[in-house]
Write a structure and sequence with these properties.
The chain is of the alpha+beta class and 209 residues long. The protein has six helices and eleven strands.
């Protein structure tokens, strides 16, 4: 049984509204009992060569580099499955929903076409989480440096990233932590849902120009 879509839609709409406010989310407590073996190992060995240890390192996500234009998206993520303008036409939203329970969404500036927000989430409950994650990794060719954060606990993310710029518990017990770069160009948000054993199940990266 998969996670209820109506609950996710509430938080998805909230994520859109907060794009310009340095927000991204993932949540959880300090328990690490449900973290996958693969992700535990990634913390231990540092995934050799992975240097995403602060907000300054999030100038790329899912193979997309800071400053990438929308014309290059399909070369990295493959064909998009839909898209639409935001209500004020300030951004265009590309949907990459080829993996039902591991969707990727990308916002680009409505005038320049530059990528501003990249959002990925894993929708499956705890028992399906790893399977959904692996399907997303395969489909979008996600590198270990990004994939390792999915399935981590709050304690594991903060051990790597340090003290968050913002740390809050949202409605429904969803934990959200955000990190902002010193140059105010990059912001990354992690969310942990209780329905998924407090594992990090959504990551949003916001870029400012």
């Amino acid at each position: 049984m998969k996670i209820a879509k109506n609950l996710r839609n509430v938080w998805f709409v909230a994520a859109i509204a907060s794009v310009s406010m340095f927000s991204v989310a993932c949540g959880g407590d300090n328990s690490s009992t449900t973290t996958t073996t693969e992700n535990k190992d990634s913390i231990t060995d540092g995934k050799k060569g992975c240097d995403k240890n602060s907000a300054e390192d999030w100038d790329n996500f899912l193979g997309i580099e800071y400053g990438t234009n929308e014309l290059a998206l399909e070369a990295t993520l493959g064909k998009f499955t839909g898209g639409e303008y935001t209500a004020d036409s300030s951004a265009f939203i590309y949907y990459f929903k080829r993996v039902e329970n591991a969707p990727v969404t990308v916002w680009v500036n409505g005038k320049t076409g530059d990528v501003e927000t990249i959002f990925m989430e894993i929708l499956g409950y705890e028992q399906y989480f790893q399977t959904d994650l692996e399907a997303g990794i395969k489909e979008f060719n996600i590198q270990d440096c990004d994939a390792r954060f999915f399935g981590m606990t709050y304690a594991e993310v903060t051990k790597i990233m340090g003290k968050p710029s913002a740390d809050e518990t949202l409605e429904g017990g969803v934990k959200s932590i955000s990190y902002d770069s010193k140059n105010f160009k990059y912001s990354v948000n992690f969310k942990f849902y209780p329905e998924q054993a407090e594992m990090c199940s959504s990551i949003s990266v916001n870029w400012f120009y």
